[in-house]
Amino acid sequence: MLRKILCATALAAALCLSLPSAALAAGPGTVSGNWRQENGQWYYYDTNGSMLTGWILVNGKYYYLYGDGHCAMNEITPDGYRVDESGAWYEVTRDILGQKFTVPVRFASPEVLGEAWGENSEALAGLGMAVSAAFGGTRKLSVSGDMIEYLSVQGDARYMGLYKDYQENGYRLDLRIRLDQGGAGENRYAEYSYGVFKAMAATVSSTPDLLEEAIYSAWQGQNTYGINRAAPVQVGDCTVTYEAGEGYGKFFIRP
User: Fold this and answer.
1) What is the pLDDT of residues 72-97, one digit of tens each?
2) Cβ neighbours of residue 58 under 8 Å, at least 6 residues apart?
3) Are residues 142 and 68 in the same domain?
4) Most buried residue among 16, 179, 244, 250 by CB atoms closer than 10 A?
């Protein structure tokens, strides 16, 4: 989390201290406090008149100031965090089957996620426990450094799997189970199958809704995005190709 990163340095620790009330401005877009607008950019000055850089905490919100002092707005900072149009840092999350998944700020390569699958290791562990509880231990979510699999405990049938492909800097998603978006919430099989599918998309893509929609459409036979085997199709922050077989589908997800 950003708070941990900030407090890891002496400068960040100093900025996390309570500042005089006069220094606590409402944020970029106002002229109160120590924010100053210069040549269309916003800068922050401390009570001694010194221009600040890096991450600062103002009125409970984090802002990123570049080396020349101007405030990042509506973009991704150099160290990989989203800031909105006011400059304040925010997270995009998805609540999936009671677990909070943090959506990556950009397409997450296998190396970036690492063996813990980025910031979603706890969410995946919680999802695994929820799956086991929902099906009395007959289904499980198996998570290792290189794969996430949704499978049956009896017979070890694999319903769904997301596998890291380090050579291509992407992933392969295998589907061997029906996905019923409309049935989610109506019965536990549809709900959990689609929930696991959503979690896999949210773990690797900064545009998981588009990725989910495109793969679901292709798997259902509608294929509104025109995903095929011959050429990659752009879907949000990644490209997708599709290889279909009898009873299975393989989706190759690349940057």
Assistant:
1) 999 999 988 999 999 999 999 999 99
2) 19, 23, 24, 25, 27, 33, 44
3) no
4) 179
